Amino acid sequence: MTEANYSNNDYYHYTYDAVGNRETQGKSIAGLVTNDTYVYDDANRLTSVNAVNYSWDNNGNASTRSARRLLNDGVNTYTGVYPELVEGIPPIG
Q: CA 2 → CA 36, 41, 84, distances in Å?
């Protein structure tokens, strides 16, 4: 599926690489437009969604996540990095 468009003007649009990994997701929900970018390593394992990075151990399990948070109060923008140990694949977002 490359897109889903709804009568209320909400939409989801997707692009994929040659092996079927999602590369981008654009969406508009109630007028709020967001765009997400997905990055994979040579083994087709997800390594990044926007500024959330994932790493993998030698068994193919997700081992760490460094989350870069972007906060915007409409006037100022703040960034920070928060590493944490996870087991399995952490939720995206």
A: 14, 22, 33
User: In this predicted structure, what is the pLDDT of residue 10?
Assistant: 95
Instruction: Point out the least confidently predicted range of 13-22, 27-36, 48-57, 75-84.
Output: 75-84
Whole-number Cα distances in Å, 29 to 4, 23, 33: 12, 20, 7
Amino acid at 69: R
Residue holding tokens 């948070």? 69
CA distance 32 to 36: 13
Distance CA 90, CA 63 (A): 10
- 29-48 confidence digits (pLDDT tens): 999 999 999 999 998 888 88
Query: What type of residue is 73?
Result: D
Percentages (nearest 5) of helix, strand, coil residues in the chain: 0, 60, 40
In the chain, where the domains are located:
1-39, 41-93
